[in-house]
Records
---
Amino acid sequence: DTEVTQTPKHLVMGMTNKKSLKCEQHMGHRAMYWYKQKAKKPPELMFVYSYEKLSINESVPSRFSPECPNSSLLNLHLHALQPEDSALYLCASSHRISGGYEQYFGPGTRLTVT
Amino acid sequence: ILNVEQSPQSLHVQEGDSTNFTCSFPSSNFYALHWYRWETAKSPEALFVMTLNGDEKKKGQISATLNTKEGYSYLYIKGSQPEDSATYLCASQQPVFGNEKLTFGTGTRLTIIP
């Protein structure tokens, strides 16, 4: 299984809602990532988890709260978002290969904040 | 701040023609260069991870070269097919506290005209 899955595919939420994005991989990868991508912009790193511990937070606002319950799962909890947070949220996992790392991406969750 | 630039932003190529595009990145503190292919509504798919200056990698009709001294990589597609239509992303990898961080370019959107 070389797949990263993400649910839901699409999410519409109001600014007062609380919702969660889910990401799952069963490749035994010990590093997992959240990226945010706005239209016509490159994916931007938000968080990195390594061995289920948060290792990088790219100064992301606290209305985004990541969680790694186990080595296969990564969640992103959303609360009090703003319309400008509407974007494609990509999850990835990685493993070491000769000369570097290889990242596998999920298809993303398209989030719209109204 | 690491800037990864890709050109052109978009490209239309006749089926059967060959094409190439460029990724440029800061050559200082270089670790690895990644190429991804991203079809609409699908997950970004890893094509190549390159680390050595002068490296050349090939996958089917797609190949890539790397110049770490001057900070650029070329992606070549020989004999384009409609299924090659996608956005091609490059990303520069940097080690950050034992984890890797990818900084992406904005991508080259390739459309193959049948």
Note: The longest strand of chain A covers residues 87-97.
---
Amino acid sequence: GAVVSQHPSRVICKSGTSVKIECRSLDFQATTMFWYRQFPKQSLMLMATSNEGSKATYEQGVEKDKFLINHASLTLSTLTVTSAHPEDSSFYICSATKLKNTEAFFGQGTRLTVV
Amino acid sequence: QQPVQSPQAVILREGEDAVINCSSSKALYSVHWYRQKHGEAPVFLMILLKGGEQKGHDKISASFNEKKQQSSLYLTASQLSYSGTYFCGTEMNSGYALNFGKGTSLLVTP
């Protein structure tokens, strides 16, 4: 089956530094990938839609200059959390769909802790 | 646009049944159901595309009433492995991102 791989699974960084999270579709090409954030015991909240070869579409309230998304190829999207602060600590997860009207495959998620 | 799930939490004894509901205030193209264990990524259960569609595998099934903009997930003869948080994800149009409900926490006890 289709697999989406996310890296790293856990990261601890100092406040003020930047962290890059990678999301790869391993056996299919994904022109669109989605980035979600999930706080403890809460739902997955869509942050942005990553489009291959064009700018990402951000949801209302998500700072595009803080959460940089790059979708340089059909199998890779990256999310960079810039100048991270403790309130950015969360579970970040990406997803992609192989075909229309089929399941969304999720990456394993990245647990970000900013200290 | 976030769908509303109910109930918030359910505790069952092994072998009991449960129903989780998901409703939207907007017209839906599809409804997806996922189960998430603590600290893990959501796992796909099923997708429903058409009004009135019903699907199921093993002892988990779901229905989608397009007119009522509602979907229900049915868990019968629950097993311990069913424990987790269940999310419905709704899609307004094909290819759009999923909007997830707040989740229903399900605990199955021996």
Note: Chain A has a mean pLDDT of 92.
